[in-house]
Structures are given as structure tokens and as C-alpha cells.
From TrEMBL:
GO terms for molecular function: 1-alkyl-2-acetylglycerophosphocholine esterase activity. Keywords: Hydrolase, Lipid degradation, Lipid metabolism. The active site is at S243 (nucleophile), D266 (charge relay system), H325 (charge relay system). It catalyses: a 1-O-alkyl-2-acetyl-sn-glycero-3-phosphocholine + H2O = a 1-O-alkyl-sn-glycero-3-phosphocholine + acetate + H(+). InterPro entries: AB_hydrolase_fold (IPR029058), PAF_acetylhydro_eukaryote (IPR016715). The keyword tRNA processing does not apply. The keyword Hydrolase applies. Its EC number is 3.1.1.47. The lineage of its organism: Eukaryota, Metazoa, Placozoa, Uniplacotomia, Trichoplacea. One of its GO terms (biological process) is lipid catabolic process. It holds the Pfam family PAF-AH_p_II. This is 1-alkyl-2-acetylglycerophosphocholine esterase. It comes from the Eukaryota.
Length: 415
């Protein structure tokens, strides 16, 4: 269980790969820059006595907590509810070491090694009303197998909260922007295109690290970013995202040639350009939660599954049984099942199985397209994903393509 009574913490599971995982924060530029965490393989845990696990909630924790508790629903909570919730959020931890050194091949036995001098790169995009730590389980899982993963806070107003440092060195808050979910396509489309640009900006930054170019990190950290020089595979970058981040994933794959493949976790496709699928020609998987499915959204997803104009395109839509939208984030893993069920809507499938199924599908996909191998290197359990998921959808689409076009998506997410 992730809940530890003796230390009163709510922990994400340990990553299953051969490497322990480090994390550092990067803020590059001011208002028009980007803020993201980098997950990476670090030294074995017995060499990390001076480093601590990172709190799941980013700093400044008070602002992130208050925002994620209220956005995007504009919830009103009383003082007792806020105190209980703050106690819980304050004790959530990711199993990653803050600012620990980047590992080298010499730090681990040859039997456990991938090549840490040539690490594949992934970018992670969060959903509506969330933040950059919302998929920490999946990010740390990849890092434990030798990947470098950059997970960003979006500044388009879709994050529950984020911030930047201005030219005077002062923090400027970027609050959640309240909009109707499916009501204003123009606003949401502007947001998804800004999000895509921010993902590209992260790749610009990582390219500079790879090339040994000087960069200025405005975040307060002692981590030496120069450790990444000549150790990243930047010729082919992958991307994954949840909900609004799924729409961002599809957009990025069309608009930035440096991204070669992607996975959308329960995507909310309303914001994407109407003709985006016409230019779509890259490997793309979609993982849908069983309850977060309605005809209009599935119709938009299926447009990206069309292989008629693309040779050898690998496109698949999976539906994971007994799951809801929030199940593909960290929440069911961080909180005991009974508590998660009181906090937000959670499906019936065991939380550890939800994570294992989605992690396995994602890992095999990126291994194939970024590492060019179909060897079974995943250690997260010998599970058959088709015991818990099926290819295709549980929704009847024919004749119902516009059903749910104006649906209040938040009701599917939270109730």
C-alpha cells in the first residue's frame, strides 16, 4: 500500500526499473519561457544518503495545493476541509531524489544496464486543472529504465496554478483560467497551440544541454545541468499527455518534426485544429478510460487512427476496463483507495493494476520507436494487458458522431 502509517506519508510506488530516479526543476526564461521538471536515472540509493525524496506537490506548495483543490471546479471549501486536505497533500511523496547526480554506466552493474551515455527523451503534458507532477509515476517509471523525461507546467491558463520569475526576480502567479469546457472552441484551440509551443520550447532547451551550450536556470537548485551534455538522443523525441495533454500530444506530433511518436492518455480532443488529422503521419497510441468515452470525443480520436494516407503507421486505441478519467494520473496510487474514492471519481480496477497496464503499454510503445527494440525489458510485472484492456472503444459511434459535442466534460471527470 502507498500509505505508510509509521511515517504518515502517501507515497507513489517504487519505480520498477534497474535505476533509482532523480529529479530537478528548470525555469528557462521569464513570462514567455517554460517551467518543467526533469526526471533522470541517478546513483544507486545507497549512495544517496544526503538526498531526500521529493514532495509530490511542487513549490510553492501552498499555492499549488489551494489551486488544485479548487480548479477547475471553483470548489468552495471550509477551514476544516482545507486543513485535512493540506495535511494529505503535504505528505505525498514521489520516489525520486531531489537534485541527485545523473548516473553513469559505471555506477551500476553491467547486468542492469541500458546505455546511460545515450538516453532517449520524452516530454510530458498535464491535463486541465492539473500541474507538472500529475503523471510522476509514469515519468519516474521511464527514468528508472534510462529515459530522460521533461514534465512541464503549461502557462496557457489550463494548469491549476503555475508561475514565472520576472526580470526583477519576483514571482508572478499564473492562475487557472476559468472557461466553459466545451463551450468556446477558439479559446481552447489557442490554449492547445500555446501548449504545443511550450513542449517545443522544452526540446529547444534540452538540445542546448545536449550541445553543451550555456543556459540559465532561474530555479533555485544545485543540480549541474551540464551533466546532460552529449548524453541525450535528440534526433527522435517522444511525447505523452493526459486529457488536455492528450490533445497537446496530437498537436505537437503534427507541428514539430522533432517529435516522432506519442501516446494520448484519455485525451480530450475538443481543442485540436479541425483539420489536424489530415497531416498526421506518426505512430500514435490512445489509452482511454472506460467511463471517459462519448461519441463526439471518440469520433475525433478515430480520425487520428485513419491509416489510409500513411504507410506502416502504427495507430491503436485501447480502452482500459473499470477505469475513469482520473485513474490515468497519480491520484489513485498516492491515496488509499477509500480516500481516493471520497476525493474524486475512481474506477473499480485496483490502482496498482491501472498503473501497471498503462505503464506497460506506454513502455513497449516508446521502446519500439525511440529505442528501436521490441525486447521485453520491462520489469513491472508479467501482465497481459489484454486481460484488463481491449483494442477499440466501448462506445457506439455510427449515427451518434455529434452526441456530447457540448458535453460538460468536468462531470465525467469528477462525478
Amino acid at each position: 500500500m502507498p500509505f505508510n502509517c509509521s511515517t504518515w506519508t502517501f507515497d507513489l510506488p517504487n519505480p520498477t526499473g534497474p535505476y533509482d530516479v532523480g529529479i530537478t526543476e528548470v525555469m528557462w526564461g521569464n513570462r514567455d519561457g517554460c517551467l518543467f521538471d526533469i526526471f533522470y536515472p541517478t546513483l544507486p540509493s545507497h549512495k544517496l544518503d544526503e538526498y531526500n525524496y521529493k514532495s509530490w506537490l511542487p513549490e510553492p506548495q501552498k499555492e499549488y495545493f489551494e489551486s488544485i483543490a479548487k480548479a477547475p471546479l471553483e470548489l468552495k471549501t471550509n477551514a476544516v476541509e482545507e486543513w485535512i486536505s493540506s495535511m494529505i497533500f503535504d505528505r505525498m511523496r514521489a520516489k525520486v531524489y531531489a537534485d541527485a547526480p545523473l548516473a553513469s554506466n559505471d555506477d551500476y552493474s553491467t547486468s542492469s544496464q541500458f546505455n546511460l551515455n545515450s538516453m532517449p527523451v520524452l516530454v510530458c503534458s498535464h491535463g486541465l486543472g492539473c500541474h507538472r507532477a500529475m503523471l510522476s509515476n509514469l515519468c519516474s517509471e521511464f527514468a528508472s529504465y534510462g529515459y530522460v523525461v521533461a514534465s512541464l507546467d503549461h502557462r496557457d491558463g489550463s494548469a491549476c496554478y503555475t508561475y514565472y520569475i520576472n526580470e526583477e526576480g519576483k514571482r508572478v502567479d499564473v492562475p487557472f483560467k476559468f472557461l466553459k469546457t466545451n463551450g468556446d472552441y477558439e479559446d481552447r484551440n489557442r490554449q492547445v497551440n500555446q501548449r504545443a509551443s511550450e513542449c517545443s520550447m522544452v526540446v529547444d532547451f534540452l538540445n542546448k544541454l545536449q550541445n553543451g551550450e550555456p543556459v540559465k536556470n532561474l530555479s533555485k537548485t544545485n543540480f549541474d545541468l551540464g551533466q546532460f551534455e552529449n548524453r541525450l538522443i535528440m534526433s527522435s523525441v517522444g511525447i505523452f499527455g493526459h486529457s488536455f495533454g492528450g490533445a497537446t500530444t496530437a498537436t505537437v506530433l503534427v507541428k514539430d518534426h522533432r517529435f516522432s511518436c506519442g501516446i494520448a492518455l484519455d485525451p480530450w480532443m475538443f481543442p485540436v485544429d479541425h483539420d489536424l488529422h489530415h497531416n498526421f503521419n506518426k505512430p500514435f497510441y490512445v489509452l482511454n478510460a472506460h467511463s471517459f468515452s462519448w461519441p463526439h470525443n471518440i469520433t475525433q480520436i478515430q480520425r487520428f487512427m485513419d491509416k489510409d494516407n500513411t504507410e506502416n503507421a502504427d495507430r491503436k486505441l485501447f480502452t482500459i476496463r473499470e477505469t475513469c478519467h482520473i485513474d490515468l494520473t497519480d491520484f489513485p496510487l498516492l491515496l488509499p483507495y477509500f480516500l481516493a474514492n471520497q476525493t474524486t471519481k475512481v474506477g473499480n480496477l485496483d490502482p496498482s493494476l491501472k498503473g501497471a497496464v498503462s505503464n506497460k503499454i506506454c513502455f513497449d510503445f516508446f521502446e519500439k520507436y525511440l529505442c528501436c527494440t521490441e525486447c521485453n525489458r520491462y520489469r513491472g510485472g508479467n501482465i497481459n494487458v489484454l486481460d484488463y484492456a481491449f483494442e477499440g472503444t466501448n462506445v457506439e459511434v455510427a449515427g451518434h458522431e455529434n452526441d456530447g459535442k457540448e458535453l460538460d466534460v468536468l462531470k465525467l471527470i469528477f462525478w
